[in-house]
Amino acid sequence: MEDDAPVIYGLEFQARALTAQTAETDAIRFLVGTQSLRFDNQIHIIDFDDENNIINKNVLLHQAGEIWNIGASPADKAVLTTCYNKTSDSRVVSCAAVWRMPSDWETGSHESPDDSAHNPQTLELLCNLDDSTHGNAACVLWEPMGDGKRVISLADNHALLWDLQESSTKATVSSTATLEGKGQLKFTSGKWSPHHNCSQLATANDTAIRGWDLRTMSQMYCIENAHGQLVRDLDFNPNRQYYLASCGDDCKVKFWDVRNVQEPVKTLEEHSHWVWSVRYNHSHDQLVLTASSDSRLILSNMVSISSEPFGHLVDDDDLSEGEDNNHDDKSKEPLKDSVVSTYEEHEDSVYAAEWSSADPWLFASLSYDGRLVINRVPRALKYRILL
Predict the structure, then answer these.
(1) Residue 112 — very low, low, confident or very high, per pLDDT cuts 50/70/90?
(2) Strands (E), 89-182
(3) Which one, of 56, 61, 103, lies nearest residue 82 by Cα?
(4) 209 near 179, Cβ under 8 Å?
(5) 75: which residues sit within 8 A by CB, 6+ positions away?
(6) Other CB atoms within 10 A of residue 353 CB
(7) Could you report the per-residue pLDDT of 325-365, keeping only the tens digit for each?
(8) What residues form DSSP beta bridges with 212?
(9) CA separation, residue 242 to residues 10, 30, 309 (Å)
(10) Which residues contact 124 (CB under 8 A, 6 or more apart)?
């Protein structure tokens, strides 16, 4: 029985890294990386059984260090990347690596769930994405919808495009881009666009957002003061190729058309503290999740700037010919944007929110105290969108 009630899971470790298992489109599965200074860090594989509304978990050891970022291969369910901190010569350095889950991680653990927690298996290191000349890794991005052979790492002021070879056991840098300018420039986050044959990248550093052409590794656009304070996260609209969402420490979420970056198309001001994560729904791009240090997760219905502003699919050309439309026809008026739901199940900063790659109506959020919450889009809205 489908139910709108949240399902909550406690990791017993602090955590801030969350991803859906992108290549898994049948099971509802999320991966969480822990941040513990005292114990070996772990990847928790969270399976949600939506028929019985319960969570099954498996644990894998990530002994390399505390996990700041996690990404799942779009092509191989068993492969993932992490960015993690390790101490070397009494200095903390941030590294990135590609890992494989042991082939038998699923066996036996559901029958006796305590087993995997007591004797967890260890992730297998495939290769390091470390290039000591290029500083500390902030995040790793997989090529969207790709074959799992290309990743980008952002490290200090460098964007490195890597080719993964020999079943991901070898990584070579194929090209690089560098942030130029005064002061200590540092990438905080980035997003690889699924459009334009995956040839574009957006990055955030300080209050700026930049677009890059990956074929030439040159800058395409720059939004200098996109936010009043640090930009935390970015996401591309999966259905409208020029639309980009951003969020930051000014408590705002902004939506941009990168063809005209003077002003945002829309700004949301629903959060009361830093906004850490913004995510478009993969299928219904009017649904946008935002997660914040105000301990709240907000689901917004941004229908006016979606690919279905009138409740049905339109392309960008139709929208620009708006002057010829007959204004008497009520069905031609865009639907109104609204906050669908504010979720209050967290008691600590919510650092990440992700949509399931198997069920478009389901999403997970993660707060720093290790609480993972699984929620669904309210049924009334789901049927309004579908019918």
Answers:
(1) very low
(2) 91-100, 121-122, 124-128, 137-142, 150-155, 158-165, 170-178
(3) 61
(4) no
(5) 23, 146, 147, 148, 149
(6) 26
(7) 444 444 556 678 999 999 999 999 999 999 999 999 999 99
(8) 201, 219
(9) 38, 28, 16
(10) 99, 100, 101, 102
Q: Which amino acid is at 150?
A: R
pTM: predicted TM-score of the whole model, two decimal places: 0.91
Q: Give residues with Cβ within 8 angstroms of 301, minimum separation 6.
A: 286, 287, 288, 337, 338, 339, 340, 381
The Cα angle at residue 354 between residues 349 and 359, in degrees rounded to 5: 140
Q: Is 116 helix (H, G, I), strand (E, B) or coil?
A: helix
Give dist(CA 161, CA 192) in Å, integer: 11
Residue 65 scores a pLDDT above 70: yes
pLDDT tens string 216-262: 999 999 999 999 999 999 999 999 999 999 999 999 999 999 999 99
Compute the distance between CA of residue 42 and CA of residue 17 in angstroms, rounded to an integer: 11
Rg (CA), the chain: 21
